[in-house]
Design brief:
2 domains, alpha+beta, ten-stranded mixed β-sheet
């Protein structure tokens, strides 16, 4: 028994925490003691601890259906290349007055705007309580603020290795639901719950390290980005359409990406819909943030299409695989986009060689179907099941007669 396991068992005994035994017929849940966290509850409540499990087969081998194992495989490949993959997500979500029931329209808790810090509002108190819970659980928070839409919040988690970040995203979503329940409101990570407001994203900053050295940094490179970093970005762009179904895995995800008038700058609510990169360009799919002098290890890139309802294990795995492919194959990075890509005309985008992301879950699945990179990264089991599951979701959606159709056609056709 190692020291972490001893610590967990001692804490369980000290806090009077009891295990809940669950039975599965064909797989085993193997506890990962390094992920142990205490859930902060009231003084009069019994202690609750939380750990993540690795899913194993009865013979002790990893289950290929386990998303956590999918990410571990991708990280192991990066490790064989000498790299450690770090990520830092900016997680957006909405707070609603109540959980909508029976087709009721969602109602945001406030009419606040970007960086609105009005005291005594529900959102202000919510973020304080939420950050306290996260920090108590050992999840470090970098920033928090009110986002641009009514009721919309953003909480940014501190940089960590990608597996820890993925675990933290899962814990984060649970914690936000718990805090909202305590505050008498409802938290949703649905990518776009409102037609009239921007959707919620999970813009994710990332970098590769060799030991203590950030390999994306080169003081002599354009924007201080190294050749390795440029090839990583090129890999993301080359395979962006292929990985979109995993990064944006719901029918509703595409309302966020494509939900604004095309000629309005920033129409997607900072949601990128076109495959390009740019220096400090928030309309691009991949953004290279401004370089801070004497902070080379902070050099990073930002992948902006992710939404907060994705499976973070699968999403980080395919993003890493695409970037590593660019490094392995020495992909060449095309020129960066300097303009607001949303504000360009279709002809201008074509002239610049800027292609669109898939415009629906169905389109994204069709592109993913032919991707060797995604199939290899996810493994045959997850790849096949994911596509079958998402195509069934699309068929269910396609069968629906929507409120839009009834309002537009019923009285005139």
């Amino acid at each position: 028994m190692d020291r972490q396991e001893e610590f967990v068992l001692h804490t369980l005994e000290e806090r009077n925490i009891r295990f809940v035994r669950l039975w599965f017929t064909d797989v085993l849940g193997y506890l990962d003691p390094s992920t142990f966290q205490l859930m902060p509850l009231g003084d009069d409540e019994a202690g609750v601890g939380k750990m993540f499990c690795d899913i194993l087969l009865p013979d002790g081998s990893p289950s290929h259906a386990d998303p956590r194992y999918v990410l571990k495989r991708a990280l192991a490949k990066a490790g064989r290349m000498g790299f450690t993959f770090y990520t830092h997500p900016e997680i957006e979500f909405f707070l609603l007055r109540e959980r909508p029931e029976g087709g009721a329209k969602p109602r945001p808790i406030d009419q606040g705007g970007y960086f609105d810090h009005t005291p005594h509002s529900i959102a202000h108190d919510f973020r304080k309580s939420a950050i306290t819970m996260l920090e108590t659980m050992g999840i470090s928070v970098e920033f928090s603020h009110h986002e641009g839409a009514p009721g919309q919040q953003e909480i940014d988690l501190r940089y960590a290795d990608a597996l820890s970040t993925a675990d933290n995203v899962m814990s984060f979503r649970l914690a936000m639901k718990e805090v909202a329940l305590e505050e008498g409101v409802y938290a949703t990570f649905m990518p776009k719950p409102f037609t009239e407001y921007p959707g919620s994203g999970m813009h994710t900053h990332m970098s590769l390290f060799e030991g203590d050295r950030n390999v994306f940094h080169d003081p002599g490179g354009e924007f201080q980005i190294s050749k390795v970093g440029r090839s990583f970005i090129a890999g993301l762009l080359t395979h962006a359409a292929e990985i979109t179904a995993v990064c944006n895995q719901w029918v509703n995800s595409y309302k966020r990406l494509w939900g604004g008038p095309e000629r309005i700058a920033g129409a997607g609510g900072e949601a990128p819909a076109y495959i390009c990169w740019g220096h400090n360009n928030r309309s691009a799919l991949v953004r290279v943030p401004m370089y801070k002098p004497k902070k080379g290890n902070a050099t990073r890139i930002e992948f902006r299409s992710l939404d907060p309802a994705c499976n973070p294990y699968l999403a980080f795995a395919v993003i890493l695989a695409a970037g590593l492919k660019g490094i392995e194959e020495d992909y060449e990075l095309p020129p960066g986009a300097e303009d607001d890509v949303w504000a360009l005309t279709p002809a201008e985008r074509r002239a610049l060689g800027i292609e669109p992301l898939p415009q629906s879950l169905s389109d994204a699945c069709n592109v993913m179907q032919s991707s060797e990179l995604v199939a290899e990264t996810l493994g045959e089991h997850v790849f096949d099941f994911f596509l079958r599951n998402k195509r069934e979701e699309w068929r269910d959606y396609r069968r629906q007669v929507t409120e839009f159709e009834l309002d537009r056609y019923l009285s005139s056709l």
